């Protein structure tokens, strides 16, 4: 069944349920949706959310649970993220606002609550969502919205929806925490969230995500405090999350480091960065955002677009220290943004990886024999805009991957 026909059948079921059960505040025949290639981002959000609501209305067990939420006047949403980068962005914030408003319109008594431990403890259903880059059959750039409603107790996806939209006028710039982050936050927990948002009805949400919901809620509170420039509160909550030694999270370790930097506590920030490297290296989740000047192996020295330049020596010092301690062998993989020829960028990315390898070798000579420099060019771009500025800094990252020693 096509998306349009599926949507119409679900909408009809929604109207029947609304008329018989009074679940929706209103029911009317919606105008035909545009095809996915012609949808705007807002239209894709509306289509996917209405699809989700229609599924809820046709599944009595889900509706009963949601009715329980209505009685308590709350529904919990884990902040939505960009599936390509793991970041919260202006686009994912827009998605979350629009979905929340649409669901609240369908259920007038419903209160959308933030993702925090107190609310999580008394909730049955959890809503998550992602925005990811996609392509149409003719190669045109699109974005795809994914939504999933999860039964927390069983970790089962009880409703899911998606829609595609043209990739125009969508603000992918990151929120403050992710803008300031020196590392790409795509650890197992984040990847588990991304996979869970794309699961089908009846499937289990990813255990790498669901088994860490309690700590994730604490980290979310800390991230919100950081975004609001309440750095002391953020530090306290990030440290609370990091106290659980059985469940270290890259996002919490990174947040502790960044909070110390913002508070001007530089010695403590280096210790925190070292702890992050001690977790990231053996867990193979280390991607550093070194911002290179376009077309060179030199670091970008504009203090406005590259405020962390002064911390690069410390980053490299701690990376070298942890590499030496763990005694693993690693590939150092350079990446570039999408400007210039493929051959040029492959060569440049290798030169950048080699430059990082040489700096690490100066910190510890043994690392020269335990590392290998590789160049990926722009073949694994995360942003792909080719703007060569702070907006696509993640494309000019250096990645460390554990490999077999030779």
Please give the largest β-sheet.
6 strands, mixed
Number of domains: 2
Helix amount = 40-55%
| Total beta-strand segments | 10
**With helices defined by DSSP (H or I, 4 residues minimum), what is the helix count?**
15
Spans of at least 5 consecutive residues whose pLDDT stays below 50 are 1-35
Average of per-residue pLDDT values? 85
Beta-strand percent range:
5-15%
Order of helices and strands: HHHEEHEHEEEHHHHHHHEHEHHEE
What is the rounded Rg?
23 Å
| Molecular shape | globular
**What distance lies between the first and last C-alpha atoms, to the nearest angstrom?**
53 Å
Which class of secondary structure composition applies to the elements? Answer: alpha/beta
Q: Can you tell me about this structure?
A:
The protein is α/β, with parallel strands linked by helices and 406 residues long. It folds into two domains: 3-177 and 187-192, no CATH class; 281-406, 60s Ribosomal Protein L30, Chain: A. 46% of the residues lie in helices and 15% in strands. The chain has 15 helices and ten strands. The protein has helices at residues 3-21, 41-58, 60-72, 90-106, 117-121, 176-180, 188-197, 207-210, 213-227, 231-242, 250-262, 266-280, 312-326, 342-363, 367-370, and strands at 75-77, 81-82, 112-113, 125-135, 141-151, 156-166, 286-288, 329-334, 371-375, 398-403. Strands 1, 2, 3, 4, 5 and 6 form a six-stranded mixed β-sheet that branches. Strands 7-10-8-9 form a four-stranded mixed β-sheet. A hairpin with a 5-residue loop joins strand 4 and strand 5 (141-151). Helix 1 (3-21) packs across helix 2 and helix 9 runs parallel beside helix 11 (250-262). The radius of gyration is 23 Å and the shape is globular. It starts with a helix and ends with a strand. Mean pLDDT is 85; it is low at 1-35. Residues 284-406 form the OmpA-like domain. Keywords: Membrane, Signal. This is OmpA family protein. It comes from Tahibacter aquaticus. Residues 1-26 form the signal peptide.
């Amino acid at each position: 069944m096509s998306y349009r026909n599926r949507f119409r059948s679900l909408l009809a079921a929604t109207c029947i349920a609304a008329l018989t059960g009074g679940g929706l505040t209103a029911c009317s025949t919606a105008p035909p949706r545009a095809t996915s290639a012609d949808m705007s981002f807002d239209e894709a959000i509306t289509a996917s959310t209405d699809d989700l609501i229609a599924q809820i209305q046709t599944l009595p067990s889900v509706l009963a649970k949601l009715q329980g939420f209505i009685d308590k006047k709350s529904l919990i949403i884990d902040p939505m993220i960009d599936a390509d980068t793991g970041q919260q962005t202006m686009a994912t914030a827009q998605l979350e606002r629009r979905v929340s408003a649409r669901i609240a319109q369908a259920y007038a008594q419903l209160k959308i609550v933030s993702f925090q431990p107190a609310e999580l403890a008394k909730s049955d259903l959890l809503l998550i969502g992602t925005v990811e880059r996609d392509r149409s059959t003719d190669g045109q750039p699109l974005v795809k919205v994914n939504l999933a409603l999860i039964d927390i107790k069983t970790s089962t996806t009880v409703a899911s929806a998606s829609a595609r939209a043209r990739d125009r006028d969508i603000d992918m710039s990151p929120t403050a925490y992710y803008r300031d982050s020196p590392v790409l936050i795509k650890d197992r927990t984040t990847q588990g969230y991304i996979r869970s948002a794309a699961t089908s009805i009846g499937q289990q949400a990813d255990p790498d995500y669901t088994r860490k919901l309690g700590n994730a809620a604490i980290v979310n509170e800390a991230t919100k405090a950081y975004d609001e420039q309440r750095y002391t509160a953020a530090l306290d909550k990030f440290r609370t999350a990091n106290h659980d030694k059985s469940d270290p999270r890259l996002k919490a370790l990174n947040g502790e480091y960044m909070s110390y930097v913002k508070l001007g506590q530089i010695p403590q920030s280096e210790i925190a960065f070292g702890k992050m490297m001690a977790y990231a290296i053996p867990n193979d989740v280390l991607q550093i955002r070194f911002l290179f000047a376009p077309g060179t192996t030199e670091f970008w020295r504009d203090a406005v677009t590259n405020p962390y330049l002064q911390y690069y020596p410390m980053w490299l010092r701690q990376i070298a220290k942890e590499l030496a301690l763990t005694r693993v062998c690693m590939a150092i993989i350079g990446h570039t943004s999408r400007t210039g020829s493929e051959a040029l960028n492959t060569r440049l990315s290798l030169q950048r990886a080699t430059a990082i390898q040489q700096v690490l070798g100066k910190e510890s000579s043994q690392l020269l024999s335990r590392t290998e420099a590789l160049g990926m060019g722009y073949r694994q771009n995360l942003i792909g805009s080719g703007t060569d500025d702070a907006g696509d800094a993640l494309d000019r990252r250096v990645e460390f991957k554990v490999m077999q020693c030779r």
